[in-house]
Design brief:
CATH superfamily of the largest domain in chain A: Tetracycline Repressor, domain 2
CATH architecture of the largest domain in chain A: Orthogonal Bundle
Radius of gyration of chain A: 20 Å
Number of domains of chain A: 2
Oligomer: homodimer
Helix content of chain A: over 70%
Order of helices and strands of chain A: HHHHHHHHH
Shape of chain A: elongated
CATH class of the largest domain in chain A: Mainly Alpha
Number of strands of chain A: 0
Chain lengths: 209, 209
DNA sequence: ATCTAACTTGACTGATTGGTCAAGTTCTCC
DNA sequence: GGAGAACTTGACCAATCAGTCAAGTTAGAT
């Protein structure tokens, strides 16, 4: 939906997005009803459908906006840094800093990632983020500072560590963003360097029941 | 709900669990209706409520059963292995092998993890898994083979890598479970060993917008 | 053979959902 | 001050939901 919005209209739209973000983050997409959103804001239902075609469109709007904001923040953080490993570190640090300031969005990401309706958008954003870091990894490999390996796969590994530790340390255990980032970076860079010789690859030959 | 079940009843119950698992994995918990489940099985709605108090109870039942099965599988895989690093490797390998045989459950885990109604159960199971691996990590630290660090935090880091790479490599890119495990283990053990000296800790002093 | 507990049916209920729309109000621009 | 666009209202709709229940069927135990 595209509409010419007055200042008042823009404010109302932002208000809807803000309130809906909070409700979605708390209850999830499906359990949060449009009625709940408009009632919470004390406006009629028509207001919602004046600004958005559907509940789904609103959610996508939220996701897109946040993804864009995060990416810009990351780019700004690594700009002009020549060292690829430092770029990886700055990227991780920026992501965690941004997420610390947007906890609702972290939750929304989880919801969206598994919902058929939104997972494509999330995977796309994830792919972009992974490709960004994969570029730095490739450079690191070329410089002989990172072990041989598929940069995209390693990028996913970093994303996995970052997400999990952000959730547990930042949002559950309430650690400082900086210290969470330190931990993630230490593990991620160690992981990139790899481990010489898997202890017992293929030694386990069990089959699933 | 506990009932005396005949053989026929037990079969029906299993059938409900099996079909519901597939539907939940495909559509998610909220969008899958009880009507859809019983219609798909060609039975009356009363059948569902003869075996389960609610849709929620069924879902919890599925989660609990799968968590139990996975844990037993992990335990069997590391039994009698004296080397802590090998136990970590075997545990990771077993988890990925098991998930390869139960792809629906992997999806269900994601759904459950973010739903307020089920996240407690998931976090509990996650905590158990992390504590398991944390024990081996602590041993590895004591043996001087793993860098100093909070074993529980490191356990979460391993869980994060495992989950992400399992999703992307095993389920999306359809790699072999064994090769996915190799990649995860290499990164995880490298991460445990850590990275001597963070490149530029705290050098980034940006604030979130 | 019969009794009883296990199992099954499917119409029904009350509540809620996403979305519509005719009508009314406010704002902006000329 | 008036015309038209932007905005708002809230009753309304068709669909769907989780869950109930009285009635009926099946099958193992005695």
């Amino acid at each position: 939906m595209t509409r010419r919005l007055t200042t008042r209209g823009q404010q109302r739209r932002d208000q809807l997005i803000g309130f809906a973000t909070a409700r979605f983050a708390e209850n999830g997409f499906h359990p949060t009803s449009v009625t709940e959103i408009v009632n919470g804001l004390g406006v009629g239902k028509g207001v919602f459908y004046w600004y958005f075609d559907s509940k789904e469109e609103l959610f996508i709007e939220i996701l897109r906006g946040a993804q864009q904001d995060l990416r810009r923040f990351q780019e700004k953080a690594i700009a002009n840094e020549p060292d690829p490993l430092a770029r990886i570190e700055f990227g991780i640090r920026a992501s965690i800093t941004w997420l610390a300031g947007h906890p609702d969005f972290f939750t929304l990401l989880q919801f969206a990632a598994i919902d058929e309706k939104f997972s494509k958008l999330i995977r796309l954003g994830e792919e972009i983020a992974v490709n960004d870091v994969a570029r730095h990894i490739r450079e690191g490999i070329d410089q002989g500072r990172i072990d041989e390996g598929d940069p995209v796969v390693l990028g996913h590994a970093i994303l996995g560590v970052t997400n999990q530790l952000t959730r547990v340390l930042l949002f559950e255990k309430k650690y400082e963003p900086g210290s969470v980032a330190d931990t993630v970076i230490r593990f991620a860079l160690g992981g990139l360097r790899g481990f010489s010789g898997v202890i017992a690859a293929g030694a386990l030959s069990v089959t699933s029941t």
